[in-house]
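Private note to self, pasted from the team thread so I don't lose it. Backbone tokens:
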């Protein structure tokens, strides 16, 4: 990174304008996150939702990536999930239908049409998910409270419309950020959602740290610190582990295989062209954080269906099994859910999560890194890899390289996603119970990946702006 160049680019009016626009959009997003769904008794919903999601680590994750929209019963409660699901569907269809695959390779025009179809499919998905959320929260969450709520048809329509509009607005804001050229808008919104929860987490840890009702910390008998000793050592260990994990994340995110490309020397008239070397960098994890988000969304659907079935028929075994299988083990309710300790059932959700992360890593990499297309482009430009024939042989060679990188990259990505379950397992083995302060590998991965990608794009634009000074 050229940090001096980045700071120097801030003197440029256009650069300052773009950055201010991005910050303005993020501020607007955070303001929208505090607009409640227009229902008669939103406070009752909020209290019930807090009780409901506290029983599930997955519910906490959904609340995390929605920027607290779940607990505040905001109009952005559905979040970007419909857009992400729509993107998966469109990419699968594009790969399955040859005409659509040709359209995706038809330059900017083809990409615009596919993006438009993605937006259109997002709308019905947002409507369905909005209905499902309200139905589940109304029937399941409120069933645990003494109060009841009756909703008329007009209230249903108003609430679903508001939540659908909130999801569409988030998608629009993300595209506005992308247009500024200093980061991916959708990723930045998720990044802002996670960061926005940091002050609440720090405040909770701070209050727990200075709770000395059980005694203070004595350091080797020299002096006492007015802090809770248990919380102090847990936070210290957590901070050290956090630094190690972030270092590992940065390393694997920046790791890449460099392939040298040679260009044949051509003579045209009295001029000679080519005869130079270039590089083709292939990232270890080319898919970034997308496989983790895809896997989370994929696992959320059966649990959502199971909750809807249970809301209609509380005694339905099929719905109960779906919720049980496709819900992450809860650290807060470990003693209740697993009275006999860790069983095979405890490992079921993490195992499915790991397999899906690995599978989606291979799938998404195959979409964004088309070896056949790259080999054809190299052949047209007179480029070749040393000791590898141009054309299909080059495509096969690149495919083998990508698959080898994916093998390690997908496993590393899966292990990062497993960090909360791994840390819970360690504490259960050592202490007999989880402490509920797991390292959120998914959240860290999103934050680190998006931060590095945004810095990279900011660096590229800064170099472009200050290019004349380096001539």
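Design output:
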């Amino acid at each position: 990174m050229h940090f001096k160049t980045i700071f120097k680019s801030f003197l440029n009016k256009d650069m300052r304008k773009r950055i201010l626009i991005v910050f303005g959009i993020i501020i607007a997003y955070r303001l929208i996150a505090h607009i409640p769904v227009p229902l008669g008794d939103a406070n009752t919903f909020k209290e019930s939702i807090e009780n409901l999601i506290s029983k599930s680590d997955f519910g906490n994750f959904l609340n995390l990536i929605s920027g607290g929209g779940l607990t505040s019963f905001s109009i952005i409660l559905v979040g970007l999930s419909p857009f992400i699901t729509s993107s998966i569907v469109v990419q699968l269809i594009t790969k399955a239908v040859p005409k659509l695959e040709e359209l995706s390779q038809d330059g900017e025009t083809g990409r615009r049409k596919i993006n438009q179809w993605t937006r259109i499919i997002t709308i019905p998905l947002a409507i369905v998910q909005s209905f499902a959320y309200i139905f589940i929260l109304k029937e399941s969450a409120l069933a645990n409270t003494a109060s009841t709520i009756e909703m008329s048809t007009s209230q249903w329509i108003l609430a679903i419309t508001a939540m659908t509009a909130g999801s569409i607005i988030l998608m629009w804001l993300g595209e506005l950020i992308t247009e500024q050229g200093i980061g991916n808008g959708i990723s930045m919104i998720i990044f802002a959602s996670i960061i926005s929860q940091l002050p609440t987490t720090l405040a909770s840890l701070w209050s727990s740290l200075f709770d000395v009702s059980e005694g203070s910390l004595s350091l080797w008998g020299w002096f006492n610190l007015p802090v809770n000793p248990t919380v102090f050592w847990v936070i210290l260990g957590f901070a050290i582990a956090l630094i190690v994990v972030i270092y590992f994340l940065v390393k694997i995110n920046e790791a890449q295989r460099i392939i040298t490309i040679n260009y044949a020397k051509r003579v045209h008239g009295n001029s000679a062209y080519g005869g130079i070397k270039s590089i083709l960098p292939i990232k270890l994890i080319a898919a970034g954080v997308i496989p983790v988000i895809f896997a989370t969304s994929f696992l959320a659907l059966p649990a959502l269906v199971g909750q809807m079935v249970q809301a209609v028929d509380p005694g339905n075994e099929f719905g109960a099994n779906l919720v049980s299988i496709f819900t992450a083990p809860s650290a807060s309710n470990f003693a209740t859910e697993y009275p006999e300790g860790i069983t095979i059932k405890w490992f079921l959700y993490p195992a499915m999560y790991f397999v899906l992360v690995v599978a989606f890593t291979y799938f998404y990499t195959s979409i964004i890194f088309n070896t056949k297309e790259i080999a054809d482009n190299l052949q047209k430009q007179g480029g070749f890899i040393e000791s590898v024939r141009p054309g299909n042989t080059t495509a096969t060679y690149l495919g083998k390289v990508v698959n080898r990188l994916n093998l390690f990259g997908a496993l590393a990505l899966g292990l990062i996603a497993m960090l909360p379950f791994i840390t819970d397992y360690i504490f259960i083995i050592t202490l007999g119970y989880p402490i509920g302060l797991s390292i959120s590998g998914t959240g860290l991965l999103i934050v680190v990946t998006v931060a590095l990608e945004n810095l990279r794009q900011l660096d590229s634009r800064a170099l472009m702006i200050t290019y004349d000074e380096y001539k």
